[in-house]
Amino acid sequence: MVDTFRSALRPALVMTLGFALLLCGAYPALITGLAQWALPRQANGSLLIRHGQIVGSELLAQGFASPAYFHPRPSAAGANGYDASASSGSNLGPASKVLADRIAKDASTLRNGTGQRVPADLVTTSASGLDPHITPEAALFQVARVAHARHLPEAQVAALVRKAVEEPLAGVLGAPRVNVLRLNLALDATATTGA
Amino acid sequence: MTIAGWGLILTFTALTALLAKPIGQWLFALYEGRPTPLHRVLGPIERGFYRASGVDPTREQSWLAYALHMLAFQVILTLFTFAILRLQDVLPMNPRGLAGIGADGAMNTAIAFVTNTNWQWYAGESVLSNFSQMVGLTIHNFLSAATGIAVAFALFRGFARHESGTVGNFWADCTRVTLYLLLPLSVAYALFLVACGVPQTFASLVEAHTLEGAKQAIVLGPVASQEAIKMLGTNGGGFYNANSAHPFENPTALTNFVQMLSIFAIGSGLTWCFGKAVGNTRQGWAILAAMLILFTAGAGITYWQEAQGASALTHAGFAGGNMEGKEVRFGIAASALFAAVTTAASCGAVNAMHDSFTAIGGMIPLFNMQLGEIVIGGVGSGIYGFLLFAILAVFIAGLMVGRTPEYVGKKIEAREVKLAVLAIAVLPLSILGFTALAAVLPAGLAGPLNKGPHGFSEILYAFTSATANNGSAFAGLSAGTPFYNGLLGVAMWVGRFFVIVPVLAIAGSLGAKKHTPATTGSFPTTGALWVGLLVGVILILGGLTFLPSLALGPIADQVTMVAGNSF
Predict the structure, then answer these.
(1) Per the structure, how many domains does chain A have?
(2) Do B328 and A35 touch (CB under 8 A)?
(3) Is the pTM of this model over 0.90?
(4) CB pairs below 8 Å between A and B: how many?
(5) Which residues contact B40 (CB under 8 A, 6 or more apart)?
C-alpha cells in the first residue's frame, strides 16, 4: 500500500504542474486574449465614461446622497456601503431585531411624514451591496424629490424613469428594473442641455 | 408568488431533464475511453501528459490502487495551493500588495478547493491576488470536478463489469474528463459570460470618480474564466465575496438562468451515463426522476416561503416577499430557485444571501445538503452518493420481500451494505458532532452574527456545508478564525474522502461479482414503485437524522417569526 502510494507521487506531481500550465496559464490567457480583442467593453468592467473620466461601472451601484439624484438600494458592502472592493449583504436573519429596527428607521426617513407606501427594495440591502438596479416603483417613488431638487417638472423626470425601465428578457426572464447610475447620467444630461 | 415564478421553476426542471441524454452520451464516450471529435486537437496534450508523468493509460488499477493514486494527487494539490496562498506576497500579479495568507486560513482554503467544497472564510476581492485566484484556486475547480467524475466512473464499472479485478485507470479518467469535457465547455461558457458583462482582464483595479465626486475602487480580474468552471464543476467558489450575487459574476437574468442550468448539467448527464453503463437507460431515468421529485418539492417550498416575506419586513407593512439579501435583477423566484439548485448540487455558489432567507426558506437549502447532496448533486459525488442510497433501498426492499437484494444485475451483500452505511454515517457524525462542539465552546460561540436560534442555524449551516462539500454559507458567521478554519477543514476532508474511499471499495467488491440475471422474483428498479421507495428512504434517513438539529435552528426561528418576536 505504501509502495503504491509512493509510486503515485511522481504522476501526481507532474500532472499538477502540467494541469497548472494548461488550466491556469493557457486557458485564462486564451479567454483573456479573445475577450479583450472581441469584447473589450464588457471584459474591462462595462465602465461608463463621461467627459473622458470613468464615472463608474454600469453593473455596480455607487452611493448617492444628494436629493437631486436617484438613490440605489441600501448597501452593506464595506463600512459606508457601495464599496466595490468589499461586496457583501447584511446577513441579518428574518427575525433579527437589528434588521427590523433598520427597516423601520429607513422607511420613516423615506416617508418623510407623507404616509406614502415605500417600495420594499428601498429598505432592503441587496445580496452584493452593489445591486445597480431598483424596481420601477422605487424609481417613481423618488421622482417628486428629484424634480423638486432640480426645479424640473415632475412629468419630465417621470418620463425619464419610464424610458429607463428595462423589461424582462423575452417578457419572462428577470424582473423589470431601472439602472440607477444610467438614469442619473440621463438626468444630468437633461439638466445641462436644458431640454 | 406569480405564475411566471412557478413557470421558471418548472421550465428549469424540464430543461435539466432534457440535458441528461446529450451530456450523458458525451460522458459515456469518456467512460468507455472512446475517442471524441476533440481528440484530434487535444489528443497530443493528453498523450504528452501521460508520457511526462510515466502513466500507462491502458493499465487498469484495482480499486485500492485507484484510491491511492487519487489520494496522492489530492495531497500534492493541497500542498500546491497551500504554498501559493502562503507566498502570495512574493508571487507575481499582486499590484495591490496583498499579504500572504496565514497558515490556518491557507490550509482551510486549500482543502476547501481540493474537496470541491469551496468554502470561503475570506472575501475574495479584498484578500486574494489575481495569481492566487487564477492559479491557486482555478486548478481545483477543474480537477476536483474531474476527480468526482472519475470516482463515479469507477463505481459504474463496478456495477457493469463481471468478475473483474480492476475499476479503470484514475489518471486516464481524470485527464480525459478534464480535457474533453470540462475545458472545452468552459471555453465556450466563459466567452458567453464575457459577452454578458463578466470581466476578463489581468488588470486588478480601476478607480472611478462618481457623479457626487467620491472615489470608487473597482476590483477586476480574470473573472469569467473562473466563473465558467466554478459552475460547471459544481465548485461554487466566487471571485468576489458576494459570489454569483455580484453583478460582475452574474450580471443578468439570462446569465443567472444559464448558471443554474450549468450547475445541474453534468450531474444530470451522469444519471443517463450510469443507465447506459449498466445496459439499461431506464435505470438512469428512474434515478433522475427520484432526484427531480425531491428537487422540485424543495424549490417550491423555498419559493413559497420567500414570497411570503420575513417578519422583519411583514411586521413593518412591507408586502411582496423577502428582498433582504436579494438582487432586483433576479427577483424572488430566481433567487429561491438558485438556492435550491446550489444546495441540491454540491455547488455552493449563491445569488442571494441565504442567511437572510426566511426561516423555512433557509431550512430547505440546509436540508438539501443534509440529505448528502444527492439531488443531482455535485459532479460525480451526486451520483455515487445517490447509488449508496440505492444500495440501502434495495437492501430494505430485500428485507421486505425476503430475498437477497439485487441491483442492476449485482447481488448486494453484507459487505456492500456495510460500506454504504459507513459512507452515509460520515455526514451526521461530522455535522452534528462538530456543531455540538462549536455550540458549547467560547471560540465557536464567538462566530454567529445573529442572535437566538438563527445564530445556531449559522453554525449548523457551516458544518453541514463543509461536510457535504457544498461551500455556501449563512455568511453572518465569522468563520475566519483558527477554530473554525481548523474544524471546518477537517469536516471538509472527512466529508469528501471518507465517502470516496468506501465508494471505491464498493466498486471493487461489486466488480468482482458474477452477473445475476434478473428473474420474475427480482425487485424491479425502474418503475414508479422503485422511485417512491428511493424518495422515501432518502427522506426518512435524512429526516430522522437531522430533524432534531433543524428543530433547534430554523424551526425555532420560524416559531419566533410567527409569534412576532425578534432577537
Answers:
(1) 2
(2) no
(3) yes
(4) 380
(5) none
| Whether residue A92 is found in the same domain as residue A106 | yes
A175-190 residue pLDDT tens: 899 999 999 999 999 8
Q: Which of B211, B328, B475 sits opposite A133 (nearest CB)?
A: B328
Give chain B positions within 8 Å (CB) of A107.
316, 318
Q: Which helix (H) or strand (E) segment is B65 a member of?
A: helix B63-86
User: Does residue A113 share a domain with residue A32?
Assistant: no
Using alpha carbons only, how large is chain A's radius of gyration in Å? 23
Taking contacts as CB-CB distances below 8 angstroms, the residues of chain B near A44 are 199, 201, 203, 206, 220
Task: Give how far A13 is from chain B: nearest CA, Å.
Answer: 7
Q: How far A153 CA sits from the closest chain B CA (Å)?
A: 22
Choose among B134, B208, B353: nearest Cβ to A127: B353
Which residue, among B226, B209, B227, has the nearest Cα to B218 in the 3D structure? B209
Please state the separation of Cα A71 from the chain's center in Å: 12
User: Per the CB < 8 Å rule, is B225 touching A36?
Assistant: no
B52 to chain A: nearest residue by CA? Answer: A14
Say yes or no: A30 and A50 in one domain. no
10 Å Cβ neighbour count for B75? 14
The model's pLDDT over B244-292, given as tens digits with 9 standing for 90+, comes to 999 999 999 999 999 999 999 999 999 999 999 999 999 999 999 999 9
Q: C-alpha angle with apex B177: B175 to B183, nearest 5 degrees?
A: 95
> Does A22 share its domain with A61?
no
Question: Is the CB of B355 less than 8 angstroms away from the CB of A87?
Answer: no
Nearest-CA distance B159 → chain A (Å) = 25
CB contact under 8 A, A87 and B242: yes
- Whether residues A93 and B219 touch (CB distance < 8 A) is answered with no
Considering only A145-149, B498-502, B516-520, which range has the smallest mean pLDDT? B516-520
Same domain for A95 and A24, yes or no, is no
Quick one: pLDDT band at residue B241, thresholds 50, 70, 90? very high
- A27's CB contacts (< 8 A; 6+ apart) are B138, B183, B186, B187, B225
CB B458 within 8 A of CB B447: yes
Collect all residues of chain A within an 8 Å Cβ-Cβ radius of residue B98.
none
Q: Do A100 and A18 fall within a single domain?
A: no
Q: Using the CB atoms, write b or e for B371-388: b if 16+ within 10 Å.
A: bbbbbbbbbbbbbbbbbb
Give the structural domain span for A13. Answer: 2-40
H runs (alpha helix) in B278-346: 281-308, 311-314, 331-344
> Does residue A195 register a pLDDT over 50?
no
The answer to whether the CB of B471 falls within 8 A of the CB of B347 is yes
H helix runs in chain A, sequence order: 2-19, 27-38, 40-43, 97-111, 136-141, 143-150, 154-164, 180-193
Residues of A in contact with B318 (CB under 8 A): 103, 107, 118, 120, 123
Cell 428577470, residue?
A174
Cell numbers linked to A121? 427594495
pLDDT one-digit tens code per residue, B286-311: 999 999 999 999 999 999 999 998 88
